[in-house]
Amino acid sequence: MRRWIWALGASLLLASAVGVAPAAAQQDPQLETERVDPVPTPDPGAPPALGSTAAILVDLDDGRVLLSKQARHRLPPASMTKVVTALVARDLFTLAEEAVVPQDVLQVRGGKLGMEPGMRFTVQQLLYALLLKSANDAGHVLAAHDPHGYDHFIALMNEKARALGAFDTHLVNPHGMDAPEHYSSAWDMAIFGRQLLEDPVLAEIVATPRFTLPWPGGNPRSFDNHNKLLGQEPGTLGIKTGFTNRAGKCLVAAAQLGPGRALTVVMNAPDHYAETVALWNYFSQRPVLLRPADEGSSEDPVLLATPPPAPVTDPVEAALVARAGPVDAPRDVRWVALMAVLAALTLATLQRPQRLHPIAEAAQFHAYLEPLLETDAAWENPAQR
User: What is the C-alpha to C-alpha distance for residues 296 and 73, in angstroms, rounded to an integer?
Assistant: First the structure.
């Protein structure tokens, strides 16, 4: 037995002498104590860690903003722009009317169906091509179909944004190709997405997995919805994807989940689908929040509110905003306040009692002076004085 012990000791001494260490001794003891997961799995109900530049999660049932990350930061919206294009098209056109493809459609860049000048499509067909295929030429045709011209349609897109309370949005085209002064925010895109879902026609379109478009002079063209969450994630309601080199991967999406309906926006995301699903999971797993009306609630909820829009000067645009927007016609608060003050002063002046003649005032205290008033009718009729 002693021989084995001595042999083992000699072996260890020899290994140490020639620099051959056992496997356990080759590891840095400092690293052994730091071996932890750098991104621990969040507890159920904990908000996800997002790589998106901007994001927002909204409870569609009550408008509560449950999570936001730089939600008002202005970023390129890419093809999410087409949500606003669809909203304005619904304000201006009927589904059955036909739009003629203009000559300048050949100048449109990016993803398109290859529409040629002179072709005719219904507004409904163009909306399917716009929101499913994300066809830039479909957006151009819709804008050019405005009876007041393409530029007027773009102006209406910005007026629509203002009417809905989206003040971090400015658009210069109907398709979302990168351009100077073409921007939006996650907050504003959530407003647009919510407005789209309130239109049954548009809500049905964005939830359609596949559409076949009749093609003039050729075979029909079928295309799938760009939103890959449809058919993969139960409860998906739409809405619109987007991608450009500047904007990165973007997605405004909604889903019917256990606790209710969730609306999400991610902009410039490393994986727009994975982060959207992570937000949906957070919506489903998080504890139910007390409503503000519940007794004992200490929360100060942030709502996806719609503030009053800025005044609209163009009469045509004002009529469209009033018809399409969910808020009352814009009011100048300072003007209303001034009118209220003037009305109060006028009322106070009218109600101030007329000053009596000195003899009439004295007669109120000395009855023997009343006969003087009865003999002189002028005291009773101030207009004759």
Answer: 34
